[in-house]
Amino acid sequence: MLCYVPGYGMHTAAGAASRMKILSWNVNGIRARAGEVADLLAREQPDVACLQEIKASADQVPIALFEMAGYWSYWHGGKGYSGIALLVHRARCEKSPDVCHPDFNTEHRIASLRVDRLTIASVYVPNGGRNFPAKLQFLEAMGNYVAATRAQGEQLVVCGDMNVARTNMDVHPKERKPNAVGQRPDERVLFERVLAQGLVDVGRALDPDNDQLFTWWAPWRNLRQRNIGWRIDYILAATSVAQSARACRVFADFGTSDHAPLVAEFEV
Questions:
Q1: Is residue 13, in this structure, part of any structural domain at all?
Q2: How many domains does the chain have?
Q3: pTM of the predicted model as reported, rounded to 2 decimal places
Q4: Would 11 be classed as within a structural domain?
């Protein structure tokens, strides 16, 4: 595991509140949506924000915008493709956090940090449309990573775009297609293996019967306005953390990305 260490570690702010709010959003290009991210941070004040598909290297990101919003930020991406980010509110830590990358971090797709005894990872699983075997390899490696992290006693929260709809319930009937990438049995099996290592799908656990709960909509034919979508973005938490979840909301009407932001609140 490789760690980015900016010269100092994380220190939880004295007297920090016990509630932890975590945001996750595939922004589909941070340069186009930096203002929207800043607006969402100001409105929701999450303790940690996990972003995916930033499509930018760190030198292309208006970092000052997020510093003014009160966040330490770490940007891990390349020009025009993939990439993730982690932002931590300065009220939660006195200094910029250390960030770690598992060994299977290819194409800038996963990074984690620690906040208040939680290890929080931002993940962007390959879509699989161009290289499906690489997607399966990533999901398998992620399952191994979760198992190893949990075996070390870490309280893990994994946030991001997993590019897999867990079941047919997570896809609108008009979008269900047998063996479509994102709905294939083999990738669903691997995703369930990730969860089987001791993680809970918080959104579904809190809203088990909602068959209209989607996080991504294809950008045509007004599918978003008609809520004809897929649920492929998740906040996954260790069982003991998930049991403390108070909410997990999807902001289906926010922003111009093709994905919706998710916000979960925990008592930690």
A1: no
A2: 1
A3: 0.93
A4: no
